Fold this protein.
Amino acid sequence: MPIILFYLSLVSNAFTQEIATQFTSYRVKPSDTLMLIAFAHYSDHRQWKQILADNQDQLNGSHQLTEGVELKLRMPLKPLEARPTQNPYLIKTGDTLGGISIKVYGQPKHWKDIYHNNRNQIHDPNLIFAGFTLYYRDLTRLPALYQELH
């Protein structure tokens, strides 16, 4: 496996905050959005503006992506930590952390547990996006987690 592909496979499994001036290419897939690409590549949906700025020539200032278009993505400077490996939940339109808590735990009071488990992905607990994946822990582990957090 070429070194760059090995590095990209490591980066895709790590959270990142900082980006560099070296670029890699990314081919747009069906149903991609700038936010989803930013989240997948940088673990930070807010980096979509940087992707837009770096690709003005391909996108002509539009947020609309066309399948197959090659985008330039800045290389992350450093991986921070691995993504959660617990139970995945794909956020749907209209979901809230309280609503997700009801769906996965049967009651809304565990929304903070979902938030704390995903705090590297959620910057504002009142702002989550359809199409992103959150992770929730087994309810039997929650009492031990409270001990870890306090």
Summary: DSSP finds seven helices and six strands in the chain. Residues 47 and 104 are 29 Å apart (CA to CA). The first strand starts at residue 14 and ends at 16.
